[in-house]
């Protein structure tokens, strides 16, 4: 029996439509429809009930899910354990955030290439909210983001945390002394994207201290924020790995702000079904690389 047809069956079942499965498998809707029709003819059973706007599993289709996942898992385990790593050919879609890109993503990619040189990594960089939405919709295979993502059918792997830091160009004269958020109210602030968890936390702190809302410029690009901070455009709240070089050179001052900003909790997230072995393996690689980064 053609494993590609089994894989197609599983993705149609997970996504609820031939169109969505075709997008996920990078093929045409006609090809998906043909694979399912061929599989149903071979089994002599209807796996799906057709409805306006999509499909749903038939009773036979519901019974077929677990054996289909077992079959795909066994096939992948065979390829991983028996075949040579360099012969494992597949594309893994990974979504991640700029904080991880700027910290340890290059070492993660290098490690993956060492272990699985035949893998192609299709990367997308977005906000944690955007990446979370894509993993929920199964548009990507693995999410590396600020998490967790609390959604049925997803598994979260703890990647530890990443420290944040308030920084400013020396011209602001804020370094070398203890300051509070009240000292920042009248200054332009550069920080994470609007409605992200760090942005919401920061706004809440100003509200709880009954301080006026400051002028905040939001961005999902840490490299853009770093450039603006270096140019003295504003005081920046950023992840610590991004600003280490600028702090070491004296281009930016590290600010001692009360209350301190909490570390960002990072997670690897993937669909928790039996045949999803590659994202599981890559999440373990990510956890090891993130641990090594914290030990530097």
From TrEMBL:
Organism: Cereibacter sphaeroides (strain ATCC 17023 / DSM 158 / JCM 6121 / CCUG 31486 / LMG 2827 / NBRC 12203 / NCIMB 8253 / ATH 2.4.1.)
Record InterPro entries: LysR_HTH_N (IPR000847), LysR_subst-bd (IPR005119), WH-like_DNA-bd_sf (IPR036388), WH_DNA-bd_sf (IPR036390)
Record keywords: DNA-binding, Transcription, Transcription regulation
Family per similarity comment: Belongs to the LysR transcriptional regulatory family.
SUPFAM superfamilies in the cross-refs: Periplasmic binding protein-like II, Winged helix' DNA-binding domain
Gene Ontology MF terms: DNA-binding transcription factor activity; transcription cis-regulatory region binding
Entry protein name: Transcriptional regulator, LysR family
Gene3D superfamilies (UniProt xref): Periplasmic binding protein-like II (3.40.190.10), Winged helix-like DNA-binding domain superfamily/Winged helix DNA-binding domain (1.10.10.10)
HTH lysR-type domain ranges (all copies): 1-58
PROSITE patterns in the record: HTH_LYSR
């Amino acid at each position: 029996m053609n494993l590609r047809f089994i894989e197609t069956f599983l993705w149609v079942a997970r996504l609820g439509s031939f169109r969505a499965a075709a997008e996920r498998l990078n093929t045409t809707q006609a090809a998906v429809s043909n694979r399912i029709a061929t599989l149903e003819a071979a089994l002599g059973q209807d796996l799906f009930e057709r409805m306006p706007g999509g499909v749903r599993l038939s009773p036979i289709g519901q019974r077929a899910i677990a054996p289909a996942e077992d079959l795909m898992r066994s096939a992948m385990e065979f390829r991983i354990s028996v075949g040579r790593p360099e012969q494992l050919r597949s594309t893994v879609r990974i979504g991640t955030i700029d904080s991880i890109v700027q910290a340890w993503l290059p070492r993660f990619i290098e490690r993956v290439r060492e272990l699985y040189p035949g893998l192609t990594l299709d990367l997308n960089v977005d906000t944690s909210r955007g990446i979370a939405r894509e993993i929920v919709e199964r548009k990507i295979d693995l999410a590396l983001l600020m998490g967790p993502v609390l959604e049925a059918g997803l598994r979260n792997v703890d990647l530890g945390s990443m420290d944040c830091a308030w920084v400013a160009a020396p011209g602001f004269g804020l370094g070398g002394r203890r300051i509070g958020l009240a000292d920042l109210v009248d200054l332009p602030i550069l920080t994470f994207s609007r409605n992200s968890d760090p942005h919401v936390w920061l706004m809440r702190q100003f509200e709880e201290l009954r301080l006026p809302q400051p002028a905040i410029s939001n961005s999902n690009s840490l490299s853009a924020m770093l450039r603006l901070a270096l140019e003295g455009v504003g005081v920046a709240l950023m992840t610590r790995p991004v600003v280490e070089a600028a702090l070491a050179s004296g281009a930016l001052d590290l600010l001692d702000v009360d209350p301190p900003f909490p570390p960002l909790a990072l997670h690897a997230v993937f669909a928790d079904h039996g045949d999803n072995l590659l994202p599981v393996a890559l999440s373990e690689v990510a956890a090891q690389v993130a641990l090594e980064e914290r030990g530097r």
